[in-house]
Specification:
The chain is α/β, with parallel strands linked by helices and about 240 residues long. The strands form four sheets. The protein has a seven-stranded mixed sheet with strand order 3-6-9-14-17-19-20, with no helix packed on it. Strands 2-5-8-13-16 form a five-stranded parallel sheet, with no helix packed on it. A five-stranded parallel sheet has the order 4-7-10-15-18. Helix 2 packs antiparallel against helix 3.
């Protein structure tokens, strides 16, 4: 499997098959939220508020319990020998909501709950990625995520008293097939990144990015479309 160098630059484009991604193809759809079966009635209510964009108490004991379960799994995953592919795959399947075939997740991977992350076939997550998945994070097929990328669905209250009391709102993140996020990119809550988009290294993505464009900056903005002129002649 080819892997991203993790250094997407403004105005460059790479893809595992060298193809120009078509904006005519269907976009990746956000995963439907799932409520764990082992929650109490109160826990189910808090979880439902969390995954539906309503304010909720982020420090609820049942959320903390589910975080500890996820932490045990991702810490075990990060310590597992990279050649022990069967065990690594089994741990990912226990940790994440869904995992496609031929997925690579490098250590040290960290997440909040894990079960709200859906990772598409052929995607590559490079070193030191962090995903806060209070709301669903849906990653399409053949997505490249470079080192030290952060995907954060959670937004704490701006008001100090509400923030200190644990008030939070979370919104989903969706990343389309074939997108490439360069090193140190941060994607904030509620953002959708379109099919084949390239996000330049160090960018902070605060709003939706359409498919098949280069976007970069803080906050990230679209710089230009990706066209046939970006082909390097690597494939015919």
């Amino acid at each position: 499997m080819k892997t991203s160098a993790g250094t997407a630059q403004h105005g460059t484009q790479r893809h595992s098959k060298g193809a120009i991604m078509s904006s005519q193809r269907p976009e990746t759809q956000p995963a439907a939220p799932v409520i764990p079966s082992d929650l109490t009635t109160e826990g189910r209510e808090v979880w439902s508020r969390m995954v539906s964009g309503q304010p909720y108490w982020d420090m609820h004991p049942e959320l903390e319990r589910k975080r500890m379960e996820a932490r045990r799994l991702f810490e075990t995953y990060n310590r597992t020998d990279f050649e022990d592919t069967e065990r690594r795959r089994a741990l990912l399947e226990r940790l994440l909501g869904s995992v496609g075939e031929n997925v690579v997740v490098e250590p040290n991977f960290r997440c909040d709950l894990g079960c709200n992350i859906h990772l598409g076939e052929g995607s590559f997550v490079n070193y030191d990625c962090v995903m806060f998945d209070a709301a669903p994070i849906t990653i399409g097929k053949s997505v490249w995520i470079a080192p030290m990328v952060g995907l954060f669905t959670t937004n704490h209250a701006l008001d100090y008293d509400e923030r200190a009391a644990g008030g939070v709102v979370s919104r989903p993140i969706t990343i389309g097939d074939g997108a490439w996020l360069g090193a140190h990119v941060v994607v904030l809550d509620g953002v959708t990144i379109g099919r084949g988009a390239v996000i330049g290294a160090g960018s902070v993505v605060t709003r939706d990015v359409p498919g098949n464009v280069v976007a970069a900056g803080n906050p990230a903005r679209v710089l230009r479309p990706i066209t046939d002129a970006d082909r390097m002649g690597f494939t015919k």
